[in-house]
Amino acid sequence: MVYFSATGNTRAVAETIAETVDADLYELVPEQPYTDADLDWNLPGSRVNAEHEDPGFRTALAGEPKDLSGYDTVFLGYPLWWRQAPSIVWNFVESSDLAGKTVIPFCTSMSDGIGSSGENLAALAPDAAWLEGRRFGESLDKTGVTQWVDGLGLAASVSDLDDRK
Question: Phi, psi at residue 122, to the nearest 5°?
Fold first, then answer.
């Protein structure tokens, strides 16, 4: 379970998924932590606006990215910012070896669906098997999260991936 959470909403979903599938948790932590002012998209020049306005910008991770070599399946969670994953998530996907892994994106958002955010991340790691992602609201619905995870058929996905090797 790899996730970025600026306000705690995505963390709550990630923890629920990790508990459901007995997964390890790895939080993407920015090298320079976000302040409330950094996260205020209503402020011209805020950090999130500056990052959004430069599509090539990548928020630096604190420390080295997690070594995923011992994992076959990776859940990838993030809040939606302008209907896309934040740049720290793009950085993680670009700097990680996801080849041969099943990646399952999910996001949190007040209103927008996952949209093209999962597809755009998948384009950065085309050698992984990306499953369709899911959007969760800002309030944790544990039952909804566990039902989604249970319905994924992870054993079949991992077997299918292994058969392609």
Answer: -60, -35
The helix or strand, by DSSP H or E, that contains position 79, with its residue range, turns out to be strand 73-79
Residue 4 corresponds to which tokens in the numbers above? 């970025």
CB atoms inside a 10 Å sphere around CB 141 = 14
The predicted structure's pLDDT at residue 155: 54
| Nearest-10 crossing angle of helices 117-124, 87-95 | 30
Average pLDDT on 116-135 reads 95
**What is the bridge-based pairing of β-strands 73-79 and 2-3?**
parallel
| 34 pLDDT above the threshold of 70 | yes
Q: pTM of the predicted model, to two decimals?
A: 0.88
Q: What is the mean pLDDT of residues 56-81?
A: 93
Give the burial string for 13-37 (b: 16+ CB within 10 Å, else e).
Answer: bbbbbbebeebeebebebeeebeee
Checking DSSP bridges between strand 2-3 and strand 26-27, what pairing results, if any?
parallel
State the architecture of 2-160 in CATH terms: 3-Layer(aba) Sandwich (3.40)
- CA gyration radius for the chain? 15
| Strand-pair category, 102-108 with 73-79 | parallel
Residue 90: how many CB atoms within 10 A of its CB?
A: 21
